[in-house]
Amino acid sequence: MFDNKCSMCGVNRVDKGYICKKCDLKLKEMSFLKKREGLYYLYLYSDLKTVIWDFKFKNRKLLSENIKLYMKKPIEDLIKEEKIDVIIPVPVSDQRRLERGYNQVEEILEACEIKFENIERIKNTEHMYHLNNIEKRCENIKGAFSIKEDYSGKKILIVDDIVTSGATMMELKKELESTQKVAGVILFTLTVVRKYFKK
Q1: pLDDT at 134
Q2: Strand 145-146 and strand 39-44: pairing?
Q3: Residue 159 DSSP code
Q4: How many CB atoms lie under 10 A from the CB of residue 43?
Q5: Each residue of 38-91: pLDDT tens digit?
Q6: Is 9 exposed, middle or buried, given 0-12, 13-18 or 19+ CB atoms closer than 10 A?
Q7: Secondary element (H or E) of residue 156
């Protein structure tokens, strides 16, 4: 009735949380900050795919407590290194929040005890994994955000759980830079799909 198999390997049973000791050690070894093509990240999506899937679609909300163990120090180091003023999680639409019950990025940041500010997602976009090219993804996300706060002179860190094409983050970055006199926008994601670097 209650599945307690590891969200990563799907084999080992877990006494507490959703990651077994073997997978926990593996993820801790890999959890150092990486940067490529202007994007900070921790893992390739293929390394954490089943964990992300369980977190977003299997209602394993408390996976945020496991993910915190890998993400808290790297993102705190990044915030300090880049002199970040404001952290903004990529927002989900009201429809998506209703379907899932929560924004998984917010859950992770709260688990990490990192303060963040929300912006509004005013467009109920189609699931990005249904769209197989960058043009469709960019069109899908265009005009999706509404920024009402004044971030003039602030350095912003945008945080997401997965970057596939980068369309969502880039649209949010563009919106911030075109409507606000921000000092800069930095991008961070928990995971990134390998093909992002081949575009």
Answers
A1: 54
A2: unpaired
A3: E
A4: 21
A5: 999 999 999 999 999 999 888 899 999 999 999 999 999 999 999 999 999 998
A6: middle
A7: strand 155-163
Q: What's the pLDDT at 5?
A: 93
User: What is the rounded CA–CA span in Å between residue 21 and residue 145?
Assistant: 40
DSSP string over 120-154: EE-S-PPPGGG--SHHHHHHHHTT-EE--S--TT-
Alpha carbon distance 123, 178 (integer Å): 19
Q: What is the pLDDT at residue 143?
A: 58
Residue 170 φ then ψ, to 5°: -70, -35
**C-beta separation of 55 from 126 below 8 A:** no
Q: What pLDDT is attached to residue 83? A: 98
User: pTM (2 decimals)?
Assistant: 0.86
Tell me if 11 sits within 8 A of 161, measured CB to CB: no
Longest distance between any two alpha carbons in the chain, whole Å: 53
In 3D, which of 132, 198, 144 has the Cα closest to residue 169?
Answer: 144
Asked if pLDDT for residue 178 goes beyond 90, the answer is no
